[in-house]
Amino acid sequence: MRKICFAEFGGPEVLQLVEAEEPHASPGRIRIAVRAAGVNPVDWRIREGQVLGAHPVELPAGVGLDAAGVVDEVGEGVEGVEVGDRVFGEGTDTYAEFAVLSAWARMPEGLAFEEAAGYPSVVETALRIIREVGVRPGQTLLVSGASGGVGSAVLQIARERGIKVIGTAGAANQDYLRGLGALATTYNEGWVERVRHLGRVDAALDLAGSGVIRELVELTGDPRKVVSIADLGAPQLGVRFSGVAGSVPDALAEAVDLISRGMLHIPVEKSYSLTEAAAAHTDSRAGHTRGRRVLVV
C-alpha cells in the first residue's frame, strides 16, 4: 500500500510517499480502507520534532491521526461494526491507503468521507478545552485564532450550549466567524481594545500560538481562565497547555449527534492528494485556514 512517512525530523520536504506493508486490525481495533485523512497542526508539529508528550515518535514514522473510510477488517472483541460500514475516527498513520483505528463511529447520513475526516480530533479537542477552561452558559469565551477547524467547532458547540463567543481571525474570515454566531474582530494592532469594546471576557482559548498568552490573561484577569493548544510556553505564564486527548469515542458520539441535528458543520477549505501531503502541511502551518484541510486517498 502507499503511505506517507518520514525518516527524520524537519520541514515538509522530509515527507515521503512510500510502499509499505499493510497494517492489520489487532484486538479492539478495526482497519479501514482510507478514503480521506484529516490534516491537523499536531501532524506537522510531530514531523518537526516538537516535544509533544502525548505523541512519542519512533523513526521512521507514519503521519496522521484522523480518517474516514470503509471497514475492511474487524479485530477480536470488537462489536457493533461490520466490514463494509462507513466510519470516521482516530488511529495512527492515517495518511495511507489502509489505517487501523482505535476509536470510531458510523458516519452520519449524508456526510461525505472528505468532510467526515475533518471531525475526529477537532471535535475531541474543542469539547476538551471548553471543559478545561471552565466556561459556563451565559458567560463569554474569547477564542484567539477562531477560523480553523478547532475554532469552528468551539464556536458552534459554545453557541449550542448558550455561551457567547468573541473570535479573532484574519480580515478575510470575519464574516465566516459571524456566520458561526461569534462576535468577530481581527488580531492585528489594537485587538485587545477592540475585544474590550465587545464585552467582558470570562475565559479564553489560544488556538493559534501567535504569542498572545499575556494579553489573554490580561483580558480574563486570571491565567487559570486561559487554555492553549498551540503555545508550548504557556505554562511559564501559569496557563494550561492542553495536549492530551480525553475520550475520543465520547467525542465522536457527540459529533454524530451535533452533525445529525444540524448544529455542527466544519467546511473543507481544501483537499489534497497523498502526493501533496507536503503542500498540505505547508498550508496548515501558514494558518489563516477557514475550516479544515484533508487528504483524499
From TrEMBL:
One of its GO terms (molecular function) is oxidoreductase activity. Pfam families: ADH_N, ADH_zinc_N_2. The keyword NADP applies. Keywords: Cytoplasm, NADP, RNA-binding. The keyword Cell inner membrane does not apply. It is found in: Cytoplasm. Residues 10-295 form the Enoyl reductase (ER) domain. Gene3D superfamilies: Medium-chain alcohol dehydrogenases, catalytic domain, NAD(P)-binding Rossmann-like Domain. PROSITE patterns: QOR_ZETA_CRYSTAL (PS01162). It comes from the Bacteria. One of its GO terms (cellular component) is cytoplasm. InterPro entries: ADH-like_N (IPR013154), ER (IPR020843), GroES-like_sf (IPR011032), NAD(P)-bd_dom_sf (IPR036291), Quin_OxRdtase/zeta-crystal_CS (IPR002364), Zinc-ADH_QOR/CCCR (IPR051603). Homotetramer. This is Putative oxidoreductase.
